[in-house]
From TrEMBL:
Residues 10-86 form the HTH rpiR-type domain. This is MurR/RpiR family transcriptional regulator. PROSITE patterns: HTH_RPIR (PS51071), SIS (PS51464). CDD domains: SIS_RpiR. The chain crosses the membrane at residues 249-269. Coiled coil: none annotated. It holds the Pfam family HTH_6. It comes from Mesorhizobium huakuii. Keywords: DNA-binding, Membrane, Transcription, Transcription regulation, Transmembrane, Transmembrane helix. Residues 137-273 form the SIS domain.
Length: 281
């Protein structure tokens, strides 16, 4: 077995992202589709996947071979295994963690596992964060009349923290979330003088992507936090950050995302204060 061939989805994803700049146009197109729609790749036919991605079926074979596989079926197995792992219930994940604890290491082993995952995430973002992107995002957000915050599901805790912190800094903001289903009405108030922080990770919440598309069409600049240059959220963003979170026993950390959210929020507060001083000078 060739050890260079990706054998799990995370390795496959990292390989695709590492090679994305050098991939031929059509192969890059199917690569983007594969990362955005991994469930479709797992169980679709070559014909149906090719039609959905807008390429010829032969492109799927060339895509697989580009990654070292002998054919598309071999590549498809990686996507199917990911789906089996993802579909394991939280009860099963907890049982796995409980087994680790009962194996002699105790619950401290579980704690240490989560700490290790968080540390990995934080070290990765510290190493890869683009300083110019950070400055651009803070400058964009600091000029906004209102900062809208958009996230769903796993990303939602980060959005609530951002809204809370912006409020404490007395920066006008709006969390796009309504129990009454008034998200569309909230979004309609956003103008090009405002800005949006949008957060979504694979398997990207459809509502987040659709609302980001609507806001973008209104001319509102978006700062996105996501996990891939192929993310559908990245295409709408003026500035976007790629954050890869590590996981432990199937539970993925939010440590790096939260650190970035804190940096953006506090950075905006500092930037607005500097802008205020210059206006008074």
């Amino acid at each position: 077995m060739d050890e260079r061939i990706p054998r799990d989805f995370e390795t496959l994803r990292a390989t695709i992202l590492d090679r994305r700049e050098s991939l031929p146009k059509r192969i890059a197109q199917i690569a983007a589709y594969a990362l955005d729609n991994p469930d479709d790749i797992a169980f679709g036919t070559a014909a149906s996947i090719a039609a959905s991605a807008g390429v010829q079926p032969s492109t799927l074979i060339r895509f697989a071979q580009q990654l070292g596989f002998d054919g598309f079926t071999s590549l498809q197995q990686v996507f199917r295994e990911r789906l089996r792992e993802r579909n394991s219930s939280y009860d099963e994940r907890l049982q796995a963690l409980r087994a680790k604890a009962e194996g002699g290491a105790g619950h401290r082993a579980i704690f240490d596992g989560f700490v290790a995952a968080a540390s990995t995430s934080l070290n990765d973002i510290s190493r890869t964060l683009d300083d110019a992107h950070l400055e651009d995002a803070i400058s964009l957000l600091a000029k906004a009349q209102t900062i809208y915050v958009l996230a769903k599901r796993r990303s939602y805790p980060v959005a609530t923290y951002i809204a809370y912190a912006l409020g404490k800094l007395k920066i006008r903001n709006q969390l796009i979330e309504s129990a009454a289903g008034l998200n569309a009405e909230m979004i309609a108030f956003a103008t090009p003088a405002d800005a949006v922080i949008a957060i979504s990770f694979s398997p990207y919440a459809p509502a987040t992507i659709e609302e980001a598309r609507t806001i973008s069409e209104q001319g509102v600049p978006i700062v996105a936090i996501t996990d891939s240059s192929f993310s559908p959220l990245a295409q709408f963003a003026r500035v976007w950050f790629e954050v890869a979170e590590a996981d432990f026993a199937g539970f993925r950390s939010l440590s790096a995302t939260m650190a970035l959210a804190m940096a953006l929020t506090v950075g905006v507060g500092e930037k607005r204060r500097d802008m205020g001083r210059k206006r008074k000078a």
